[in-house]
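Methods: example folding runs. The two proteins below were folded one after another, and each record is reproduced exactly as written to the output file, sequence line first and structure-token line second.
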Amino acid sequence: MRVSQRDPFGTSLSSSTKTTSMFSNILANKKIYCYITDNLKSSLSSIGFSKKLIHNLIINFNTLDAYKFGKEHSKELHKIHSVGFFQKLVPQYFSKNIIPEIQASNKILDLGCGTGILAKILAEKKDFKHIIGVDLRQYPEWKKFKNSKITFKIVPEKKIFNFLLKEKPDTVILTWVLHHMKPKEQERYLEYLYKILLPGARLIILEDSYSTILKPENGANIYRSFMKFGPKDRQNIMGIFDWVANKILAQRHKATIPFTYRTLEEWKKVLIKKGFIVVKEKFIGFPANRDINTPQSLIVATK
């Protein structure tokens, strides 16, 4: 049964968790299949997953049911991914790539905050006074990360613009959020943000994205292999990796995977189109100790 729901940014969701119903045509391409499974073996082992879990994932990849896989490996998924990756490795990644781009701020908005791990990190910095984490639903970690400087809020999509207008943050951060929207939704939210931000406010975007111009700061060998595929195949590869990260590793069965990735150059173009001034673009590439080997880019813009 397929259940249509809505995520915090208005995208249509499906409750389907089976690989075969979503990606059978993509995985029929032997080169893509080998690229994906080889990279999963490498990335999953790098963050500490057992040989048994990796073997069970790869050997059944074409017919995998994410829900059943999650039930079978729940303890390891929690220990290695929910705690080890998101609460230990991701903070290091954010501290290196996002924190340096944030100016001293009275109010920072983490839009699509998820577990709130970024808000937790920001609250530990003296230059940041108040952090608001926004998502559609409450995460268990919100209570764990409770801090006098943090406010977590559930904001439905229909109320998001008025909420943004009321808050008027100095800095807005979107980490791994926009590629879960369809293109028109991406542009709509950028329009919202441009309208509500004051002059000089910063928008910081971390996305699953690659550059066709800049050299990667990490993983040059992986980048060369990735770029041997055409643009459409690259989109498909990134979509399947995202499916693995969200529906298998994080067990977020209602997460959207609409395959709406943009290159770094395309993100720059759409931001300029919406009125922003791009002040920094960074092709992070394929950093080590990641759950999936998908390209990473950072772009910083101001109003």
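Second run, written to the same file directly after the first:
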Amino acid sequence: MPNDGQVGALTGRPVQDMATTVRGPRETIGRGREADIIAWGDGRVLKLYLSPDRRGDAEHEARVTAAVHAAGCPAPACFGVAELDGRTGVVLQRLDGPMLLEVLLAASNPGAVLDRLVELQAEVHRHEVPGLPALHARMSRRIERVRPVAGRLANAALEQLARLPEGSSLCHWDLHPGNAVVTGRGLVVIDWSGTATGNPLADVARTLFLLGDAPLMDDTPEPVRRRVAEIRAAGVGRYLDRYCEITGVAQDEIAAWRLPVLVDRLVDGIPEERDLLLRLAGAS
């Protein structure tokens, strides 16, 4: 998620610059929408942003990841930022193990795998980390920005958001099976760049969109698409049921966040999501 005025009180914490730590050939071990993952010395990786103008975002992510790790959350250790070939990245602990997404796609009982994710999300929500951006205020600013695109939906989302309680829980804001690693010490969550303090039910509503509705990347193989469709049909309702069972909240309390979450998501500017988000928001 692009830096959206989100640094908050964490700006006062120093970020160690590790630009000269590693020399010689480097192995790229993964790639996402926004960053390459590069082996970076013993037991570390560099999450290197694809765009060259992301220094501020890298420093923010380093501060937030270090803060949530220090608070005892299931996050990798963070060692600062580094530059490579004109781009900036975050130096993180290397996590050994498969992504939860790989486990989910291969599982004979995908519901049980999703149970692990929902229990992880509930655990994250039990934490409070001072100094993080306020989710409620950030959503309000972002929804204001999409008025030209969303029109009356943006107005309705802002009205709904104003009626919803703010909260003080740690919200990852991008929790899905592709952002959890299965390690020997349990599940560890990666990509804390959009993390904020807020109402945990907003975070669940966003995860439900990612699990149940978000389009797959264009290069996703057809067998994987079919498998994801099967998992979505069987597992998303179970995820919601399990979260409500763990926390004691009602499903309609989570549903109340769906419209603001969908309109907020428009700001991320993912082309293949735009029409879907507008359609889903209109039906909410």
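Comment on the second run: The chain has two domains: 8-93, 100-283.
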